[in-house]
Design the sequence.
């Protein structure tokens, strides 16, 4: 029930933000890119706090039977990748495609470093199996 109310409030907020952006684009077209970017990031972080993080906690609880770090790493990696993709698309639409590519690449590398400890343990196990 709380998720439904939160989702409906978020949709209403999204419609209001869209109408405000339309009004700004007609009233003050030179400020529109700056206000659009600031509203985008504010709304993105609002969505993360109100919907995505609670959903992630619920999703992690569903996968408790899995070994400890894997469910958290999978869900965290997916959320990081998706948020990075959203931000990279926004930066690219603003005309900074190379900066968007570098930012998205950096997030991919950071996701790989999150998995480094588990990957090294897997490589050790595989190398022991191969050498025996």
Sequence:
């Amino acid at each position: 029930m709380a998720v439904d109310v939160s989702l409906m409030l978020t949709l209403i907020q999204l419609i209001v933000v869209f109408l405000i952006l339309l009004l700004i684009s007609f009233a003050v077209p030179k400020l529109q890119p700056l206000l659009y970017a600031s509203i985008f990031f504010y709304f993105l972080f609002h969505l993360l706090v109100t919907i995505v993080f609670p959903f992630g906690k619920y999703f992690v609880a569903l996968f408790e039977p899995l070994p400890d770090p894997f469910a958290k790493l999978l869900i965290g990696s997916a959320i990081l990748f998706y948020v990075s993709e959203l931000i990279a698309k926004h930066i690219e639409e603003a005309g900074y495609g190379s900066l968007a590519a570098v930012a998205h690449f950096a997030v991919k590398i950071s996701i790989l470093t999150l998995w480094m400890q588990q990957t090294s343990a897997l490589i050790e196990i595989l190398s022991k199996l191969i050498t025996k």
About this structure: The helical segments are 2-27, 32-62, 68-93, 97-114, 116-131. The mean pLDDT is 81. The two ends are 56 Å apart (CA to CA). The chain is about 90% helix and 0% strand.
